[in-house]
Amino acid sequence: MKRQENVMIYANAQRCLGCHSCEMACAVSHGGDSGLFDAVKQQLPLHPRMKVVVAGDVNLPMQCRQCDNAPCALVCPTGACRQSNGQVQINEANCVGCKLCVMVCPFGSITVRRSEQQKGYSVTNQGVAQKCDLCVTWRAEQGKSQTACIEACPTKAISLVDIQTYRQALIQARAKELANSQKNIDVVLRGR
Prior knowledge:
Elements: E1 7-11, H1 21-29, H2 36-41, E2 51-55, E3 58-62, H3 71-75, E4 81-84, E5 87-90, H4 100-104, E6 111-113, E7 128-130, H5 136-142, H6 148-152, E8 158-162, H7 163-190
Antiparallel strand pairs: 1-8, 2-3, 4-5, 6-7
């Protein structure tokens, strides 16, 4: 599978139902070999790397935005959090669980969590940083082109977008808003 560079998850708040299907799919895709039913039966903890947030009357899936100058990568003392190929990646083997990345993330999308593989870790290291990794490993193993959250979303509110394409769409949307407001101003000024 070709690695996609400089992409991020885009969520359309107008389409999000707040059903949490994306969270569950994320947790299952990062939970090892067992599927949802096996995980529940075995009472395995499921930890999504994204979260649906309710803000007033809007639901919005929040996850790593793959920042261009990622604060988490800048503060990481061990280099576990780094930018590579247009993505912010965490090398969990190098993470010491200091939580600096958690403190500086402007979207609150990084958590530090102890995993089953960390049973031998010291008392001082209570976990490793985890965040949306664009399902890189899961997509490669499953032969998928989309992330687990995108596949699970019943309303197609979530998509994978190239940053440059997103920026161009944002510029177009702002230009349209300005043009419409200019028309309204012209109407008001002509009426005087």
